[in-house]
Amino acid sequence: AVRILDGVNTGRTATTVAAGAYRFEGLTVGNANLSAKAVGYQESRAGVYINGSNTLDFVLKPEVIDPNGSWVGSGTGTASDGTPVSVNIKLEVAGGKVVDWTLRYSFPNSPGHPNNFPYGCTNVTGSRREVPIINSSFEDRRFEIEVNNSLLYIPTIKGTFSSSTAVAGVVTLVKTTPDKKKECPASARVEWRGTKR
Q: What residues pair up with 92 in beta bridges, in sequence order?
């Protein structure tokens, strides 16, 4: 999106075609500063004298993504047996690493939802270890010794930071043993999206 920021044509906008070309029609002659923005890129500004034949090119630099901070996300999907499943995610990011993540997964039709929490097919799990963010992406799988028969699914969480305020990814849940709680699905896959708090 290209926008005229000042002068007699203030507020006029144009949208580029796929190749990046843009054009304004019916502008009044005069000086103006313009802004160019695109998702995933830093804003670029430049000035031009508008006379009906001048051109103005912009070069946009990729947005510098700073994922450090707290993030929350959620998503819904379908388990291997067709059961609906939802996830809620919290991330703590510091020093270019996911240092803590918490995942709550819920199967609304499970015998443990909502009053029996955390029994049935619904639970909370997480990991406190440093997971590096490489090319704005991370992946972690929770390995943990089962305590008090509560660990039913091993989750894998993947995510990609697309900007300094947006993250999205996939959570997969794989049942620890096929014969445990046979009413619960064997696996699930959920796409999720999140934002920085």
A: 70, 100
